[in-house]
Design brief:
By secondary structure, this protein is an alpha/beta fold. The chain has 32 helices and 32 strands.
Length: about 850
């Protein structure tokens, strides 16, 4: 194996297992002064013959690099490192050479002392391990903790893994006074695959953030610069909620500046301006690193990005066929004000075969009422014979998988739902991925979709139309108490003859409100077969007050509405708010939002391409760890990051954009909704609304609780007798049956079932047995001991993954759920941890 110096140091190096001895011989024969040797030291002790070499060291860093690179023409930075070619241990003070040799008798290695060996009285040396095969650097980094655990002495690791993540090289020293080298006589070559994968930050692409036009003049950026310049050398600077010394704050502030997506040249100019004292000679590098490290984007930059998107907007009241020029095999986007006839255009005016797909069955049902087209809402994939087909998004996926749709114009109505429906992002991703890679003719339609939010799905053409409409005002009603109380009081204040549509996305509470106001109607996903619901769709009209979950959120046309009310049980997006108000096709109703007071908060949004990096890392981890183990450690967004189709696992390519959009929606709601671009505006004066207790509602809730408790008690007793009480308590019946089958007596089962959470814990404990995992937990956790949340997390993670940490983002509360499955625990909120009170025993198991 050849080790190149200077200009050739970037050449890729490879070797096979049989080259291990040659590798060691090559390293031994390469005697280069260590980085700890000064130029003066060399001149005084070794003569002028070393001067030229030392200059070369200082100028070019001719280190021995344990990597191959992707592009030999680019710098050796993290993003350019390809594979790890051999493992290097850099040992300074954790053990002696003698101890190391005694402890490591399994694998082949070469050991040599570094230049500063024995200078301070301790052994300083480096160990080079050949490895069985070159390993991707990201894969090697993910095993860092396991490698550190293996190469440790007592409770102290003697592995410096900085070279793994910093693109660092090393040199073999000349033979100084205390120089020592040793080659092991072991024949086995180290296989890095034996080390379990664990935590590592997602490997960055090295890609710098992209500037957004107009952000160079952002006042927030200027304020950050002024903040830094106002501080003296000994003063702390507050950056992103933390205080830093002025020197550290320089870099941290530039990360904050980068979040605003200013141009690189402008940020460099700011850096020089902030470096007035001239103490930093690498401001360009600081800016470069800040722009690479920045993982978030300020919401103002996202808004600027949207405003600067270039599209020709045309005025129209109603769309005509010639407005939308459809080209075969291309992807088209049609954004037009609600009510301008998008659906009518594609279903009634365009003379060609059309598959019209919508995200909600209610939209399909209403559009089919006065048309004779075939309707598909299932997933059979059976192809209809009519030239116009109405179907759900799910049905379209089946059609795409089983048929050639080249003759059809595929229309996706309410296209904005692809980003707003996080609960079914797997379906949305599967649909768009199929369409993205196809040559089908596609038309996506929406009244509110912004293509800058989904740059992954590229459109060949974008047609944008706006209708001249009167600006509608939205009154904000604020309450400090419970929203359901406030809603009841508000509805009581309206005229009894008013027709009111209310978005209240909480079916349980909506049904409780109906018991207080019996004249209202509740529409939810369970209402699809109700005659009242079908009548709404057929007549396009409601009578009285209707409380709906998201079933009527969009796509449904309604007339003669007096009031439309949105109850902010969640952070609704601007698009969702507008879509709901637009159900009123007459545009004459009063618009309201009932919410709790909002505290403005500084909000940063995850950058989509950085989230994509995490998703790639997650996908690699899943392929090695397995989905079951990911579920066991409580992986966040598991069903959103990946999906199953048959036996295959795919990444949901919508995930990074959904993640960014969801955070942006929350930030918009907190910072202040801006609805003007949709033809709406918030009335500046916020009205206060009472939310004092509604006695009738309290009685309903209390009565409901009492009835449910009585019913639950009866269900338990019936289950103990082997009888099912009602369908609502089927799970209770089944669980008690499992307890009895596993050796619990009636008395024990009744005692467990008296606390529903205990019953749930035993259910998980019995139905999901993990014997190996149990043994580890019983060994690591002791009854009567307190464990911090961090300690508990590390123990459980290691028990599942064989590593104390993981790259996978997890829900910290999931660890408590796992502990509850095997132990009786007491939460110590103030101490941020738990105390183990006892073992949750199962009759059939044997404890260690």
């Amino acid at each position: 194996m050849q080790f190149q110096l200077a200009s050739d140091v970037w050449e890729k190096t490879t070797y096979k297992t049989i080259d291990a001895t040659n590798l060691i011989e090559s390293i031994k024969s390469l005697k280069i002064p260590n980085q700890g040797v000064t130029h003066q030291h060399l001149v005084e002790n070794y003569g002028s013959q070393f001067c030229d070499l030392t200059k070369q060291i200082k100028a070019r860093n001719p280190y021995l690099f344990p990597y191959s690179v992707k592009d030999p023409n680019k710098k050796l930075i993290a993003s350019n490192i390809d594979k790890l070619q051999f493992l290097v241990l850099d040992i300074d003070d954790s053990c002696s050479i003698k101890q190391f040799i005694e402890l490591n008798k399994k694998y082949k290695y070469y050991l040599h002392t570094s230049t500063t060996h024995r200078v301070t009285g301790i052994d300083k040396f480096r160990v080079i391990f050949p490895i069985t095969e070159a390993m991707d650097i990201a894969d090697a980094i993910s095993r860092k903790n396991a490698i550190q655990d293996y190469f440790s002495f007592g409770d102290k690791t003697y592995l410096d893994t900085s070279f793994l993540i910093k693109g660092r090289g090393f040199v073999v020293p000349i033979e100084l006074e205390y120089f020592f080298e040793h080659e092991s006589q072991n024949e086995e070559v180290l296989d890095l695959n034996i080390f379990a994968q664990g935590f590592v930050r997602p490997v960055t692409t090295g890609e710098k953030i992209k500037a957004v036009e107009g952000m160079d003049s952002a006042q927030e950026v200027e304020d950050l610069v002024k903040l830094y310049l106002s501080k003296k050398d000994d003063e702390l600077v507050l950056v992103d909620g933390r205080e830093y010394h002025r020197n550290d704050a320089f870099y941290k502030i530039h990360i904050e500046i980068a979040k605003y997506r200013v141009s690189e040249s402008y940020q460099i100019a700011l850096a020089h301006r902030m470096n007035m004292d001239g103490k930093r000679n690498s401001v360009e590098m600081t800016v470069d690193n800040a722009r690479k490290a920045c993982r978030h984007i300020d919401i103002s930059a996202l808004k600027a990005k949207s405003l600067n998107y270039s599209v020709e907007t045309k005025k129209t009241q109603f769309l005509k066929v010639e407005d939308v020029n459809i080209e075969q095999g291309k992807k088209h986007l049609l954004t037009a004000t609600t009510g301008t006839g998008k659906t009518t255009l594609v279903l009634d005016k365009i003379d060609r075969k059309v598959i019209f797909a919508a995200p909600l069955n209610s939209i399909i049902e209403q559009q089919s009422l006065n048309r004779t087209y075939d309707v598909l809402t299932g997933t059979s994939g059976v192809f209809p014979t009519t030239e116009k087909i109405l179907c759900s998004y799910d049905a379209l996926i089946s059609l795409l998988d089983k048929n050639d749709l080249s003759d059809y114009l595929i229309v996706l109505d309410e296209f904005h739902r692809t980003l707003s429906d996080g609960f079914r992002i797997d379906k949305m991703s599967g649909l768009l991925e199929r369409l993205k890679g196809s040559n089908y003719t596609i038309l996506c339609m929406s009244g509110t979709f912004d293509p800058t939010h989904l740059e992954w799905f590229k459109f060949d053409y974008h047609f944008d139309f706006k209708a001249d409409r009167q600006i509608r005002s939205v009154q904000v009603l604020e309450t400090t108490g419970k929203l359901d109380n406030a809603l009841i009081r508000f509805l009581r204040s309206l005229k009894s003859t008013d027709n009111n549509l209310v978005l209240f996305d909480d079916k349980k509470k909506a049904l409780a409100i109906k018991k207080v106001l019996p004249d209202i109607t509740v529409i939810s996903a369970d209402s699809k077969e109700d005659e009242v619901y079908k009548q709404f769709l057929a007549l396009e009209e409601i009578k009285g007050t209707v409380l709906t979950t998201q079933v009527l959120l969009e796509g449904i046309n309604l007339k003669n509405l007096d009031n439309i009310v949105i109850v902010a049980t969640k952070f609704w997006s601007e698009e969702q708010i507008v879509q709901f108000y637009e159900r009123d096709r007459d545009r004459k109703s009063n618009c309201f939002i009932i919410r709790k007071p909002i505290k403005k908060a500084e909000s940063y949004i995850p950058e989509a391409y950085k989230e994509k990096e995490y998703q790639n890392s997650f996908y690699r981890e899943i392929n090695k760890l397995g989905i079951c183990k990911a579920e066991q450690i409580g992986a966040k967004d598991l069903d959103k990051l990946i999906r199953h189709e048959a036996s295959e696992v795919y990444m949901n390519l919508l995930y990074p954009y959904w993640k960014q959009k969801a955070a942006m929606d929350i930030a918009n709601f907190r910072e202040g909704l801006q609805l003007e671009k949709y033809g709406y505006k918030l009335i500046e004066t916020v009205e206060k609304i009472s939310s004092s207790s509604v006695i009738a509602l309290d009685k309903v809730k209390n009565l409901s609780k009492e009835i449910k408790l009585k019913d639950y008690s009866l269900a338990v007793e019936r289950a103990l007798e082997g009888e099912r009480y009602s369908g609502e308590f089927s799970s209770t019946f089944n669980m008690i049956g499992i307890l009895l089958e596993n050796g619990f007596s009636n008395v024990e089962a009744r005692d467990i079932a008296s606390q529903p959470k205990e019953l749930e814990a035993y259910k998980d404990r019995i139905t999901e047995p993990l014997p190996t995992f149990e043994k580890v937990l019983y060994k690591e956790f002791k009854v009567g001991e307190f464990y911090s949340a961090i300690d508990a997390k590390a123990i459980i993670t290691k028990a599942i993954t064989n590593s104390p940490s993981t790259t996978i983002r997890v829900n910290p509360n999931y660890y408590l759920k796992l502990l509850t499955r095997y132990f009786h625990i007491k939460r110590k909120t103030a101490k941020k941890g738990v105390e183990i009170e006892g073992i949750r025993k199962i009759k059939s198991e044997i404890f260690i």
